[in-house]
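Q: Give me a backbone?
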Amino acid sequence: MTGTPLSLPEELLLLGLDPVRGRPLTNPKYLHYGLAGAALADLEAAGRITVERGDRITVINPLPLGNAIGDGALAALPAPTKGGKGVKAHRWVHGAGRPLQELCLRVLEKRGALRRETHRALGLFPYERFPVGPVDLSGPARARFTAAVEAGLPGWRDRLLAAQVAACDLDARLLPGAAGRPHRRALRGLVKECWTSRAVHHAVQQDKSAAGG
């Protein structure tokens, strides 16, 4: 499994976790939404889903992809039915992100890229952290991301990943300060170009509005 290419959700999760502390670099819920959006992007690229009427996901090919994350995401989508309306993308993203993160964590643990640590707050309440494991895939993922951004995101996959990074509010942590401002602006523009990142952005904004209200 170590030599298998990373899926888009795996790569986003590696970018979204502090490699030393193993904690999310953005709001954990926002990262969940980003992972769900990244999984949808992979499914669309594999010809398994399409989006209709602006924001409704329809499964057009239910055959498994053969990987745990993609198949988990596909199984979580409504089965194709004649005349079915599909599911609204931002609603699916809102509900599917947390179980998809657990799938990603398990896959990355098997790769040796992350290790699961259980801690207790106040000695009572358990919580988990996921620092880098014996096989460092986080460093190379960050290096690839930075190089792609500095090159203007020439590849479609780079653009999809960058759009999810911005949609789940990771861009300020990965591209900080004044030097990163032009890149952050470019990434924010990408969010509108892809329906999967728009769905993530919608879910994030719903949470922010609810918190503000």
About this structure: Residues 8-212 form one domain.
